[in-house]
Amino acid sequence: MAYEVQENQSSEATFILLGFSEYPDLQVPLFLLFLTIYLITVLGNLGMIFIIKVNPKLHPPMYYFLSHLSFVDFCYSTAVTPKLLENLIVEDRTITFSVCITQFFCACIFVLTEIYLLAVMAYDRFVAICNPLLYTTAMSQKLCAILVGASYSWGIIVSITFTYFLLSLSYKGKNVIKNFFCEYDAVMATSYSDSYIIREITFVFTLFNEVSTLLIILTSYAFIFITIMKMPSTGGRQKAFSTCASHLTCISIFHGTILFLYCVPNSKDSWLLIKVASVFYTVVIPMLNPLIYSLRNKEVKETIKRLLHTKLYCCKI
After folding, report:
1. CATH number of 175's domain
2. Judging by DSSP bridges, how do beta strands 174-177 and 14-17 pair with one another?
3. By residue range, what is the domain housing residue 218?
């Protein structure tokens, strides 16, 4: 009976997303800024998926992983940004318990999937540069599908686990979330239950995800660097570095932000810093990834030019 009362109290609880409400003069400028970023994110990521699909030259494993990275960026940005935009123009920033938990669950799946996709892409670059003759055989379609499927599956498993932890806590009445979306720690902070054990388990999960993926990334790039430095041709070295530059840039930005948010205890002292970092990895990074890859990739740029040329030609006719 006690558990039933607790469950009913939680289901009737509501949350108020504080967001950037403490800066009333910035609401409209922030709305326009985030709307622009979101439109670029949608067009950039869906455009990247379309470009990879229509160009036969963009069907190697690297682009297969990139198309999934674009899909993941689009999904977790869409899980967060529309509510952020809404709360910048309305006074009632209330969100129900079920919607809040659903938002967290969806965002968590795709953020975790991206963490592992970036590690998979590092392994792909390792095989391509260190074993170029075996690349096609080693990175078969079946293996690529397994790696991508495993990334999504682990994202779902961990997200279900984290969501279960949130649901096991008790909430009642109206609760203020000091963020613009239902971020894990912000939601947990509103509970009146003892969450010490859950926080410790969550930290272990987060640390495992970061350490395991960074270990794969760092090991892959250590071998890549050694292989590149042994190349006799300067042009070959430059080309090899160029193929890795975009991926390294995305990794540095994404993992740097995640480590700051979840693995540095002192970062919890400032909710403003947490909100800014949250904006970076949920809103800005999904926009940056397709731009980084398209601006540094010759095949992608050529495909965009060809599509634009075809479009202009059809318009003239």
Report:
1. 1.20.1070.10
2. parallel
3. 2-316
